[in-house]
Design brief:
Elements (H helix, E strand, L loop, with lengths): L3 E10 L2 E10 L8 E9 L2 H8 L15 E9 L9 E5 L14 E4 L5 E2 L6 H24 L8 E3 L5 H12 L4 E5 L5 H7 L1 E6 L15 E6 L3 H9 L1 E9 L13 H5 L3 E4 L7 H14 L2 H7 E4 L4 H9 L6 E5 L2
Parallel strand pairs: 8-9, 8-11, 9-10, 11-12, 12-13, 14-15
Antiparallel strand pairs: 1-2, 3-4, 3-6, 3-15, 4-5, 5-7
Amino acid sequence: MPEQFQAYQVGKNDDGQRCALTQLDDSDLMDGDVTVRVDYTTLNYKDGLALTGRSPVIRKFPLTPGIDFSGAVIESSHADFSEGDSVILNGFGVGEVHSGGYAQKARVSGDWLVKVPDGLDTRRAMAIGTAGYTSMLSVMALEDHGIEPGEGNILVTGSSGGVGSVAVALLNKLGYRVVATTGRMHEKDFLTRLGAADVIDRAGFSEAARPLGKELWAGAIDVAGGNTLANVLSQISYGGAVAVCGLADSLNLPTSVAPFILRGISMYGIDSVMAPIAKRKLAWDRLAADLDLDLLDELSFDLDFNDLPQAGADILDGKLRGRAVVKVP
């Protein structure tokens, strides 16, 4: 690898935040014991916030955004990694307080890396990305709660997005009957192809929730928060659970304790950023085994590295469907 490399940099001045493609060299790499040639990265909702500055995701400037990447180790002093290993990184503050995947090269702590599991390559690893990994953590939470296929419908909110679309595909492959909500009903055929048994309009979840609604769902995966989550909680069947992994609608939760006390339901917070390595390895191994990879190829699309700034705005505006895979030049 040449000493110089291309990277997006987000800087900040009195006029606000600005993102630009620039030339860096090895002296700009952060401290770490593994250097990686970045092959692929992706675009997540959080990346859109970082690229556009619509929310203060980045807390250190200047910084290279991109909360995940995959690639090959080119230098390592870490005991678990050697030159040529294919690796994945997501979370641990990368793209927020540590430089991330929107660069040709990255230097990181080897304690943050996971080897690409058998059955995946670096491209498919980023077709899954942080969104798909979060989906797997959410599915694992419902499984750990004891919800089994055949016990009732599983609801997935925001199912046209990265987390939701992979969650629908995973749950269907594992034998669950999935009901998907979306604000884009024209995507019904797409969601049915992923495995949704039914697709409903998210508008029905936008109003203020009653303390208790009709018991409709054995479990749910929610990416929205706000009134959506409040309504979902009120509709969970006795003893069911919701895996909460996003706040696309709102950080607020206008609900009551009624469904927790009167129906004994549970709510699991899903953290994809600081989850321990053992749990990460399990999630990635499960993804390699339990996700239909042909279907993964269908729900992912190629995004040009040079188009990342505009795509960052598009994902926030709900204009992208599925998983964006970015080949780093």
